[in-house]
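Per reviewer request, we include the raw input and output of the structure prediction for the construct analysed in the revised manuscript.
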Amino acid sequence: MSAESQPADAGTKTEARGARRRIIGVVTSNKMQKTVVVQVERRVKDRKFHKYTTTRVRYKAHDEKGEFKIGDRVEIVETRPLSKDKRWRVARLVERPQEV
């Protein structure tokens, strides 16, 4: 394929990979090396009874520097498989709780 037939912006990585999911959750464990456990809570409406229930899902996310602590609100981004259970990495710190 020649360079003239490709659009100018075809080489960007975001288009090649597609949109990655971004989720905000709370760090519940940081005892592993370079890994944190992030709990994400969602309010889901029951189809039959029309009541809202809280569902909690726990994701293992990659934290290269080990900088996130328990209780931090973080944003995690979907990524390639890093280990058996890790398919997410921490993108940024959203909020750190106030210490008393």
